[in-house]
Amino acid sequence: MNLVHVNVVLNKRPLLADINLNLERRCWAILGTNGSGKSSLARVIAGEIPLTAGQLNNPPASCRWVSLESQQALYEEELYRDESDLTDDVDEGRTVRTLLTEHSQWASEHQSLCETLQLGELLDRGYRRLSSGEARRTLIAQALLDHPELLILDEPFEGLDMASSVQLHAALNRLVERGQWLILVVGQTHDIIERCEDVAILDKGRIVYAGRRDSGLEGAWAQLNTHSSKPPTLPPRDPEFQLPAWPRDKPLIELYEGFVQYGDTFQFRDLNWTLQPGEHTRITGPNGSGKSTLLGLITGDHPQCYRNNLNVLGFQRGSGESIWQIKKHIGYVSGSLHRDYRVSVSALNVIVSGLTDSIGVYTQTGAKESQLAHAWLEIIGLAEQANAPFRSLSMGQQRLLLIARALIKQPPLIILDEPAEGLDDFNRFYVLAIVEQLISAGDSTLLLVSHRSDETLSCISRSLEFLPSESPEVRFNVQSFAEDAGQPPQSATDIEGL
């Protein structure tokens, strides 16, 4: 397959320009920063979007494309099929088993894939109950069961815990060794598997490098630093939007014998945990262990928050408090928020919605709100996209906007659940530098969930680790360590060396 002078313009926006690329039948990696056009190129190859000009010669007879976008599409399909209003039960979506047997009956191949991708314990769980990493593995298995000539995996390692990532790396290497035609679309060089020896790099819709992995990749990739080498500069805090500092002697969160239960099964239980102001905490644990579920209890997005003995920001859950009284003091970004941010709104208003704690903007806002949001657009490098519809942007650009939305009011509690999912190498460490600067300059307390060991901040002094046991319970390890023992992230000034 080769692409000859391919150009793509969609809704008057140029996505790809003069693409010339010979993708022979082996493993290729398409590498690029957020908004570079790498996912648009994948969609062209998969036949998802038409060419404006040029040719795609000798396309594959069959192709499957698995991406953050396709994961979102399946989630929205499950929402559309939701029958909770017609029954007494909560509709959790089709089970993993159902999704894997829609096109063929269960066979040894299904069993083998479930073992390879660690799906065995998830087979009877509804899709909407899956973590981001679990959903990704399910879609990859579903695609492989179709036996496509070409398999395109767009950011396949995002949201996976370390063990799952290592296992998927090994599984993909074995696929390539057996002759599977594979294209990996990634924003980080360490996500390129060992058997992938050919790389194309995109920037602003154009090919800037195409060749062997070992002959020039590092130099070409390092030149794509999309941000200034200077550290980010936060806008001055406006007293009109500044929340009162949280009292240093008053806990932000108190949870006693916390649990989440589905039927007879506990996702976790017996969690006793208190978060004091200034106790910046990293939450770790394998996919599905309950990290995001715990955060959902705190934000009020999980219905079992009312079954727990839980005090959040001075409010005992279930005592008649308003959810907005709690959300007012929280800045939050997560995969679930990203999935649910499905309204038609501009990039600017996504950030403004952080001041109103809403998905979209439904109250009148003024010049000051817009001015502050514009300042945050400048910080994240999306000033030129201020009026672009949120859903027209790449998943990485959308995630940058949601991060700015969480930080705009610099609240007492900042909750970042896999905040860098979908971000390229540069933006990943750049946003961590923004968060660290905000923490050092204000009174916010941070809760950070991340699977990556290099995604940490020097301010983090505590950890809450979910430890799976052989029983249905999950035990916990709460640990404190000296503030200077943290591993600081690569700052904006370090990014050039990647």
What's the gist of this structure?
The chain has 498 residues and is of the alpha/beta class. The chain has 14 helices and 19 strands.
Characterize the structure shown.
With 498 residues, this protein is α/β, with parallel strands linked by helices. 29% of the residues lie in helices and 23% in strands. The chain has helices spanning 38-45, 68-80, 96-100, 108-116, 132-144, 162-177, 217-222, 291-299, 323-327, 335-340, 347-356, 367-379, 395-407, 425-441; strands spanning 2-10, 13-22, 27-32, 53-57, 63-66, 150-154, 181-186, 198-203, 206-212, 253-262, 265-275, 281-284, 309-312, 315-316, 330-333, 413-417, 445-449, 462-468, 474-480. A six-stranded mixed β-sheet has the order 5-6-7-3-8-9, with helices on both faces. Strands 15-16-17-12-18-19 form a six-stranded mixed β-sheet, sandwiched between helices. The longest helix has 17 residues, at 425-441. It starts with a strand and ends in an 18-residue tail after the last strand.
Major beta sheet, strand line-up: 5-6-7-3-8-9
Indicate the multimeric state.
single chain
- Which structural class should the secondary elements be placed in? alpha/beta
How far is the N terminus from the C terminus? 32 Å
* Parts with pLDDT < 50 across at least 5 consecutive residues: 483-498
> How many strands?
19
Global geometry? globular
Radius of gyration from CA coordinates: 23 Å
Mean pLDDT: 85
Which band does the percent of strand residues land in?
15-25%
Helix fraction, binned, reads: 25-40%
Could you give a short account of the major beta sheet? 6 strands, mixed
Please count the helical segments: 14
